[in-house]
Structure prediction request, 142 residues.
Amino acid sequence: MFGLGVPELMVIFVIALVVFGPKKLPELGKALGKGIAEFKRASQEMKDTIESEVRNAEHAMDLKKLKADVEGIGSQVAKELKDAEVLAVTSFEPEKKDQKPDPQSGADAGGTTPDKQEPASDDKTPAQQETKEKETDVHGKA
Prediction:
């Protein structure tokens, strides 16, 4: 403790005893003890306050990072949903129910003849070709 050994402390105690006297020395010791305890308590409170503020700042930074991550994921999901919507619209063509078959040409509403199927196009994906085959099976026509 500050490089003071037992002999140095004994010298300080003897000097304090001579200066203040035996009646005042216990009161001074009690006051000194209370002062040291108060100083320790105040320094511990300051340390706790600083640590709490650091934790709050780290938490706020984590929340900002999390918010940025969530917003990034949200925009990515929105973009993927838009892409999926575009893909869904382009891969499934709506049926033309308003057109009536032409009795002279023998063609149905889609413009194809009932006995002829439309040849598979190479630019369609396998999923699009499979969907087209399912429509053919369900409706009995291409």
Q: What stands out?
A: The chain has a mean pLDDT of 78. Residues 15-84 form one domain. The CA atoms of residues 33 and 39 lie 10 Å apart.
